[in-house]
Amino acid sequence: MAPEETPMTSDDRMIFRSAEIISVGTELLVGQIVDTNAHFLSEQLSQIGLSTYRHVVVGDNTERLEQAIRHALTDNDLVITTGGLGPTEDDITALVAARVAGVSLVSNRDITDRLESRGRYVSPGYPLIPEGSRYFHNDNGTAPGSLTFFTLNRSQKAILMLPGPPDEMEPMFLRYVRPVLEMHSAAKFVHRYVRLTGIGESRSEDMIRDLIDSQDEVTIAPYANPGEVVFRVSQRLESGDDDKTDEAVEAIVERVGEFVFEIGQRTLNEVVLDMLVSRGETCAFAESCTGGMLASSLASIPGASKALLGGFITYNDEMKQSLLGVPRDILEGEGAVSEECVRAMADHCRLRTGADYALAVSGFAGPSGGTEDTPVGTVYIALSKCSGLTVKRFFFRGDRERVMRQSVVAALNLLRRGMIDG
Amino acid sequence: MAPEETPMTSDDRMIFRSAEIISVGTELLVGQIVDTNAHFLSEQLSQIGLSTYRHVVVGDNTERLEQAIRHALTDNDLVITTGGLGPTEDDITALVAARVAGVSLVSNRDITDRLESRGRYVSPGYPLIPEGSRYFHNDNGTAPGSLTFFTLNRSQKAILMLPGPPDEMEPMFLRYVRPVLEMHSAAKFVHRYVRLTGIGESRSEDMIRDLIDSQDEVTIAPYANPGEVVFRVSQRLESGDDDKTDEAVEAIVERVGEFVFEIGQRTLNEVVLDMLVSRGETCAFAESCTGGMLASSLASIPGASKALLGGFITYNDEMKQSLLGVPRDILEGEGAVSEECVRAMADHCRLRTGADYALAVSGFAGPSGGTEDTPVGTVYIALSKCSGLTVKRFFFRGDRERVMRQSVVAALNLLRRGMIDG
Description:
15 helices; 422 residues; 38% helix; homodimer; alpha/beta; six-stranded mixed β-sheet
């Protein structure tokens, strides 16, 4: 039976107003792994128009999990759990959820058949799902998802259980769960995003202060990622409401347009790759302190091979000399972290690869290294294109990885501007 | 005044038993950024010996934040907040915390002086901290941390407020906050970690099933990262208890030793770099589908330049030919994703760079590409060293980025084994 045909329950017309996400797992509480599920689900729920007022993480403890689910159900009609659905003893989520819902756990022939047909070993009595629940197949693991409707203190409630591993949960959610949740949603949120780079959070906020202060139906919320500032423009749309987010986005762009690289959800590397592909142009990289991070920021996007040719990682002076032909004079005189060095790196990289654009990066990422004139955090970036060469010097704050990440963003932005300037 | 000398309060002998972490910010709830603070703090608290039973994320809403803090204080004596300490209107944490603690917010001359001496712009009336609280300077931003003791329903309670940006919060916590919390802790947890690669989570769990099942004082908890399985061995140590985690670690290693690359906290890239440095050897990389991610996994570790020379990113056939001298016969015959191709890439990379070890990676990371014989997820990895060449073929599941990450782990492990085998 296809998942789209799993049995309907009589609660299919219930409208969810708000959901609380509970991530289950002691490994989350002791800081061994980062909970990316709550992040993924929040974004999804927000797109669907379901409000989320709280996330909770609890360990593999039946009492605390039950307390968390009951507490969540006092303020919300939907509780979403991730994790704790495996076959081992500390996988307690289904047990606790069934207890709260007042139903038994049962095995399901459709689920076990499907697992067996995929050659998955299924231990006896596993997996179990709450009786009468709608279930969701797990194409990448064994634990199925389930959505259980029940009545608690005369209110209609629901518990959605999802597996913990993100590579099982995310595809399950996108393929099977989201269409079901959309049927249970009344309102929709509209979110728009204006993404800036080359400017700090506080300065960019100051430039649109009055817009932020005068917000009413439309809210503008700023936040920052390394090298990037994002303004999230949001409106909750009930039926009949006018979408006023476009106006707000226009007003923001009027103020800070020169720093805007994207109105939407694309990150800077995606914007740069899309620009390259649409122009039919190619790029290559000569990386010192970023050590391959710049190239891999493009390589990790599907379809990168249409524009990314490759490049060189030259982590010491000898490599800069032998792979990229940086003259010994420069390395011994100005040094590897200098305008002269990145110029030579970029030009040679473009020549050797035949790319339309070559970026070169050299700097002191720290924690050690650097000189009095060129302290840790100093990064030179050069862009070579057929019409000429641009070099910029940056000072980045933060630890080694943060300096590397900011260098990647600055380099991609230099390339973006280089394409716009022609 | 140095932070170590900030005034003591009369509550300095309070012993914290458990802490709840509350992350504040609507941007977390709508899924725009991942909450890494709770993860960082959990691990820190666990090391200090403070139990954490719950994490909560709430938006920038005074009522919900107050409700969350009050709820947390019913079960815990310490509440830790991150975020919401900035100068803007939606930064409500200090306001709400002071209300719960029943104290006023005051400005502090020591804090503002220090900010001004660092050339930070300080707006009038900012920052404010709860009266009588211990405060912590922010070396990387403006919002200070604070620890406020108070009595609620005749119980002694405390609220620790920390800034939201991880690059401000983490250094503040490590430098100033942790030593203070350690004074307030009674017990300590011992955690040991056995890290495996080259084996799946369920298979490795099966191999130590009886150890997991017979756990009593010492608990063994498995979890997985891409390409890696970790067994966390934990014991809560009260004074007088014997540390039995070493025995448990030995018992695990006896079973799964061939897959163990680390007993401790180092990740595989750190283990490989340490091995290279201690042997005085060097490495270089020739990357196709990983596009620089392999090299940057080493480059992101402080001190990488001692062993990492550099390498080549050859993202298409022309680059493999021109930069790495892969014969056209191979590219047109066996193709770029083949044993022959990575052999040529690895050998040439070692020759060109003079490294002791060269790793070459070529595969189909997807989502498109691949052939019937060589489907998406197929990755060839070669290790070239002076005593010879090893090639392995892998099939990885998951999306593009996951295939790339698993390739990086497999390549590093091939290098690690290549060093051990001599």
